[in-house]
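Email to the structure team, subject: Malate dehydrogenase model.

Hi all, the expression group asked for a predicted structure before they design truncation constructs. Nothing fancy, just the tokens so they can compare against earlier work. One-line instruction: predict Malate dehydrogenase, return tokens.
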Amino acid sequence: MKITVVGAGAVGATTADNIIRRELAEEVVLLDIKEGVSEGKSLDIYQTAALLGFNTKPIGCTNDYEKTKGSDVVVITSGLPRKPGMTREELIGINAGIVKGVTENILKYSPDAIIIVVSNPMDTMTYLAFKEAGIPKQRLIGMGGALDSARFKTYLALAMDVSPLDIHGMVVGGHGDTTMIPLTRLATYNGIPVSNFLSAEELEKVAADTMVGGATLTKLIGTSAWYAPGAATLLLVESIVRNQKRIVPCSVYLEGEYGQNDICMGVPVVLGKNGWEKIIDLELNETEKAAFEKSAEAVRSMNGALNA
Ligand code: NAI
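Reply from the structure team: attached below.
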């Protein structure tokens, strides 16, 4: 198994670190355009091997795609992160150029790779990568819902004063402050609806906090977050590499599912060795369906900016 992470910034390096600690692959390549950064971070990560006890040796490289040759899974995190006050959507111009170039280079050396897109605005970057790549749709996956769902579960757990491990819940739709849809109606505390424990107002607050979860951190830290994004990306990579068939909301190319066509948006999918293997069709109520439709309109208008 060989895994490449493109972009050795905060999210990329954290993702690589997580993958390496779990020994998910014999080879892990970390690639960045900035001279020395991926080499330095790889060495830093490898220096934890003797302390934490793992054997995978990361390979750092500056824009040398030959080193990525034959990768089974590639994670794209290259691109600008948001600064306080910015939306993910404002990153489109510069990140589109980066994601397009990276996708081309990756496929030159790893034509069979499963590609996970993290760069923002993620749904549009996933759509762009899919159109550029011309590979089966099951091999192109955007990471956003995994992170948003983790934030949703955390806010629910905090509101209920329980462990996040006992909370099940999902966020679907677009990966944007106004486009994501925390599915409060379907969230449970070990199978019991969370509405048994929290009032409608409390649930509304949890949903609102979830939607601005990323922006809250960006405001506090001064740049966008990396621990939870790195762990959420690990969830996708691990389910694929170990063929775990976990159900994770991911941005995938829709052809009629959830009433949408020619768009990448967050829906629950089964992740296994072939990428996303199946879309789970949740029975959304009318309000949730309307929210999904509205979210799709926003994502579609963002995709339109790719041709502007
Ligand atoms: P960062 O600035 O720490 O790292 C980005 C890295 O990409 C830099 O090291 C930069 O040199 C590199 N890079 C730029 N152009 C490149 C190219 N052409 N080839 C290779 N490397 C290149 O940013 P951070 O915080 O790691 O975020 C990365 C991206 O992930 C951003 O677009 C951010 O908005 C997004 N993100 C997405 C999340 C999601 O849930 N989908 C969550 C968190 C961040």
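DSSP finds ten helices and 14 strands in the chain. The mean pLDDT is 97. Ping us if the truncation boundaries need rechecking.
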